[in-house]
Amino acid sequence: MENKTVKALLINGSPRKNKNTAQMLAKAAEGAASKGAQVETVNLYELQYCGCTSCFACKLKDARTNGICAVRDALQPVLEKAVEADIVIIGTPVYFSDVTGMTRSFIERFVFPNFSYDLDAHGNRLPPRLRKQTAMIFTMNIPEPALEQWKYDILLGTSVKIMEHNFGHCEGLYVCDTYQFNDYSRYAAGMFDEAAKRRHRDEHFPTDLQRGYDLGCRLVENTTK
User: Has residue 225 got a pLDDT over 90?
Assistant: First the structure.
């Protein structure tokens, strides 16, 4: 990677552009940029697109897709950038124990063209065509001690493993007990102690942001080794 500008693409899978997930991605971008990377952030909720349609154009013999999903919609230019990038960081809030639907659709269309169904001369499945540094940042309401109780280490870890298997490296960063509303008094959300949530945000979110910054730095350093 010497003498080559590292490209880092950050994917915001949250409908909100300035809250917890977006702030974590901004710090990761800042960290990557501090190490000389060229960074770009894409907000998925600004785009109109679908998930994988099982057209299998990417699995045709002598396919001309070049590892990019063949469905032509607003996501295709983003997928082209993701394929070209050296680093891809995906940020998403956790909805019902999983990534957002927009994030899932992006992952389907980013990963599947890179995943081979074919075998080599020895009968072994061909490895994925692309290798790059990737990471996933998850933001969620539940406190950190509940991660194992709710099996989030398994449920969310599956997405991390999919990315790692297909691109060679993926880190998962979990941000827990997030401050969800600007004004808790406006919402029917009695299960949350607003004062405790605010205190946790003030005491812990700065550390989470630093972890995001360090992640961005680390992925660039891994790329340039």
Answer: no
Rounded Cα–Cα distance for residues 40 and 37 (Å) = 10
Q: Tens digits of per-residue pLDDT, 3-25?
A: 689 999 999 999 999 999 999 99
Q: Which of 147, 13, 162 is nearest to 89 (CA)?
A: 13
Q: 75-78 long-range CB contacts below 8 Å, 24 or more apart?
A: 75/44, 75/47, 75/49, 75/105, 75/106, 75/109, 78/11, 78/42, 78/44, 78/47, 78/106
The rounded distance, in Å, linking the Cα atoms of 118 and 141 is 41
Cα 158 to chain centroid distance, Å, stands at 13
Between vectors from CA 39 to CA 216 and to CA 111, what angle results, nearest 5°?
80
Q: Is 29 exposed, middle or buried (0-12, 13-18, 19+ CB in 10 A)?
A: buried
Q: CA-to-CA distance for 65 and 63, rounded, in angstroms?
A: 6
> pTM (2 decimals)?
0.96
